[in-house]
Amino acid sequence: MFAFFRAKPEYQIINPDYWSEKCVAVDRSGGMREYSRAIAEAAVMSHIKSFSEDLTLSQRELTSLKQSVRRSVVFDQGEEALRRSLSDFRWCDNDGDTIFSDFWEAEVRDWTEHLIWCSRAIVWGIEKYDLTKEAISGH
């Protein structure tokens, strides 16, 4: 299993997407992912962009939509509050339709610092093991 965790420059040392699949338990103080406001905001803006392209909104309509989202959507109170505010969001220029009905699919979480730190620690430990083994064997 050491070969799997050895540092590979092409993977920038760790690959949390792939490595997290190998986790069978998480720390009691936190999981592998946590809500990220920056990722949430980017996901909402991407959703708005797709929506506006599908409906070919004018620049004025798009500006109005973005302003309404900034006024109504809660980004700073966690994932549940964000998703609830998006579910409740209605845009008056669109006959009150919900535009975020499929937003539940969007990822708004990032890897925890703890997962990243542990992943790097595994790589560091294996590297130290390899160096020690090499020094002992003389290769």
Explain what this protein looks like in three dimensions.
The protein is mainly alpha-helical. It folds into 2 domains: 1-32 and 112-139, no CATH class; 35-109, no CATH class. It is 55% helix and 4% strand. The chain contains 6 helices and 2 strands; from the N terminus they run ααβαααβα. The protein has a two-stranded antiparallel sheet. The two termini are 21 Å apart. The model has no long low-confidence stretch (mean pLDDT 85).
Please describe the topology of this protein.
Layout: H1 2-5, H2 16-20, E1 33-35, H3 37-55, H4 59-72, H5 79-88, E2 109-111, H6 113-137
Mean pLDDT across residues: 85
Strand order of the largest sheet: 1-2
Sequence of secondary-structure elements: HHEHHHEH
Structural class: mainly alpha
Beta percentage is: under 5%
Largest sheet report: 2 strands, antiparallel
Low-confidence stretches: none
Overall geometric form: elongated
